[in-house]
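Case study 2.
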Amino acid sequence: MNIKESFWHLSIFIIAGFLSFCFLTQRAPACSVPVFRYALEQWAADPYGMIVFHRGALGPKDAALLDALRQKTGDKQNPANVAFQMVDLDSSLPKSAQAFWKEYGGDSLPWVVVRYPLLAPSQEVIWRGQLSQAAFDQLVDSPKRREIAQRILAGDSIVWVLLESGDKTLDEAAFSTLTRELARLEKLLKLPFTQGDLQDPDSIASFGSDLASTLPLRLSFSVVRLSRHDPSEQVLVSMLLKSESDLLDAEYSSQPMAFPMYGRGRVLCALVGAGINAETIEDVCVFLTGPCSCQVKGSNPGTDLLMAVQWDSIFSQNPLPPKPAPVLTGALPDTPVSIATSESIALRAGLLPDGGQSASRQGSVLRNSVAALGILLVLALAGAYALKFKGGGG
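Prediction:
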């Protein structure tokens, strides 16, 4: 085989590898179910970490209370997304646990520290205090969270939580903008398919298998107003404000904030002050009502809230039994507060120009790219080997 023929064979290998790369890195066909509905049916709420600091064995009263709290996470009616981690201060603690206790510990034991789920963009502590039934009840439930859950379980696509600033003029302006734009978008936007499609024999084969529940599928947006100073909602306020690293900055403290919530109590991002406008509201609604382009929850932006809700009630009158709450193991975060880059900040920065779908595909595209590059490398090495072999034999 001459050099020209050898070069041709090597070129074939490289072209084949390149085509494999292009094929694998293309966006996978989008699921026909809207993001908000897919999240409700398929994405379990991530558990919050409830770290219980104590010394030695718990007394009978505290042990009974903790056992009752654990049972709450498996409550068939309203399970809470909480995972417990026990830390005995009389035992040898790793440095991370020591730092965590030094930063967030208290005088009365058992002492409880609650943080976001491990996979959340923020790892801030949302609450700390002495172990008690009253404290736990306020942590996992509140009137506003029940209202939000009821609206979602009734079929609302997105429930917008308007966190008021306390300035009546600003709050009313934000509320007016939200309600006006959401009413417009309910008429303007179209779902990938509607509940009526399921009655069409030609459509049911394409769409019917994608829906897992019989909950009515519709475009419906609503707004829940939340005061920052409501004593019964301080845990919810804390979860919202600490879901992104910059929301507690002084420049935002006097501004109303709008948080779109969907799925199983998942908050997407915060629109702040002047950011509560027609363009940003539409961007969020287009993303959440569009086809779910990435079914992997971790590749989609957002943070789950701590709630006590039986989300599986959407599937039947006899919902699936709740999964037992996981028990946290391993070390605490290396630093008392570890704040990851918020995906919702990327959303506000314009990294989702095509209706909010680009960032949700980044995880799958990256994995496909790595796989494709691996195939390309193998083919190129095979081609080089063939070239060497043929050259030596020719």
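The first strand starts at residue 48 and ends at 54.
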